[in-house]
Amino acid sequence: MDIVEKRLQDLGIELPKPPTAVANYLPYVKTGDLLYVSGTLAMKAGEMSHTGKVGETQSVESGYEAARNCALNTLSIVKDAIGSLEGVVRCVFLGGYVNAIEGFAESPLVINGASDLFVEIFGEAGRHSRAAVAVSGLPKNSTVEIQCVFEV
Amino acid sequence: MDIVEKRLQDLGIELPKPPTAVANYLPYVKTGDLLYVSGTLAMKAGEMSHTGKVGETQSVESGYEAARNCALNTLSIVKDAIGSLEGVVRCVFLGGYVNAIEGFAESPLVINGASDLFVEIFGEAGRHSRAAVAVSGLPKNSTVEIQCVFEV
Amino acid sequence: MDIVEKRLQDLGIELPKPPTAVANYLPYVKTGDLLYVSGTLAMKAGEMSHTGKVGETQSVESGYEAARNCALNTLSIVKDAIGSLEGVVRCVFLGGYVNAIEGFAESPLVINGASDLFVEIFGEAGRHSRAAVAVSGLPKNSTVEIQCVFEV
Q1: Is the sign of the CA dihedral C83, C89, C91, C93 positive or negative?
Q2: Which domains does chain A have, with CATH numbers?
Q3: Partner of B132 for a Cys bridge, out of B65, B111, C28, C33, CB 3.0 to 4.6 A?
């Protein structure tokens, strides 16, 4: 068993099935050594796990869980794309969008739910550059959306 | 006549003139095999075609048309950058921003206006990774803005 | 003294210390020839210089200054990453997020504060592709956030 799979098992994490695109696009595109992964939503077992805005129906804490679920979906796409998570050289960039009330200033704390997972699983290779913003709406009313670029 | 130009002609599509940047930036930058295209707006024949928010002055359907116009402007920049659309190896990534009311959850349906056009024109090479979000405002009050990365 | 450092000096610009990441991510990641720089905020000397929304507590003009401060922080990260700003081949892409009131349409004028600085300092190599949008909230209530990709 490879190291990354072992870490997933040690953490008690089972990757979800890769989500299917919700419209006319692909879950990922590989160009050169870069794997662009499409935006993923807060879904678990094929259902939305977190909908609505942080500051209304969601807290920073539940938003963190939403971001973690996005990251699990992203990883399931990466595994599907390249066969094994061992093939990840580096998480390069994470764009994090938080569905939040006007003026929300804590998007970094929410998006940490995704960032922490990548670091737990990949160690140093999981540490990435990032931008986090609060937006007025997300697909399927998801609480969080993340969009990532990996070096593979 | 090349295949892509023929497809454009068959679809009755005439590319607009490439839009000029609305501020101190370039319409595109090429780095290695990647062509980064600046955000394009819902413009036609040099005028804004769709302004205001989806959910107020625009519907999902008219937003779809706005996204298609953005995509036509993006393609005109790509053609200007590399001489011929035949030079497109792949549409890698499309970032779609929808100017919409608070809590808008249907940005994928709007951004499909751009995605569908790329697939119509390039076929499999036009299928891309994507992220779609709703934002509180866009340049010139455009209804949609898209930002793309191509492999050329 | 290298050309870029001389230009900084001629402009009376002293780069700030590179900002530390406000959460579990890195200030930058290099992959191949691309340097992804994390989102930077409107900070000066370690303190927020501009908070709140353009259209409320900030004007387009003060937003422009906020964007310039973001850009200075970005440059300090670039210098830290590659040792000298001489190593910048090209500013490839700038994603600009403006914390603004609903329907704000002037994000290009605000983000020019960052774009103008890059052109002042790097000349032609500082000209970049760009997307500017208005969002409902930014980390630490910053007025502007920019996220850049450089070729180094």
Answers
A1: negative
A2: 3-151 (3.30.1330.40)
A3: B111
